[in-house]
Prior knowledge:
Blueprint: E1 5-7, E2 14-17, E3 20-23, E4 26-28, H1 36-41, H2 43-53, H3 59-65, H4 69-80, H5 84-96, H6 99-104
Antiparallel strand pairs: 1-2, 2-3, 3-4
Amino acid sequence: MTGSCRDVQQYPGVMIYGDAEVSRFGFIQEGDVMNAEQLKGKWTHFKGELKQKWGKFTDDDLKQIEGNYEKFIGKVQERYAGKKVELMKWADAWHAKPAATKAVEKKPR
Length: 109
């Protein structure tokens, strides 16, 4: 791979190396990392699954975040500091899944 590595300020923890995005977790296919615009666009669907999977988020937290990536990162740190990496991997995996898969993957009651 050629090119230089630089921080992408609007997406904390994501670096660009040549044409590939790199996160703290390793090399990621382009488009597999959720970014600010994608979070905002999919917020309604994402927040339901986020609260279901990661129950420490309150309704007030979700209202404060309201699709804002920076606020989301802040609340992840506040509620899940020890599991931040795991939660962010889950968020990236959620984003990478096809929409049909997301709709049928519900937690059994």
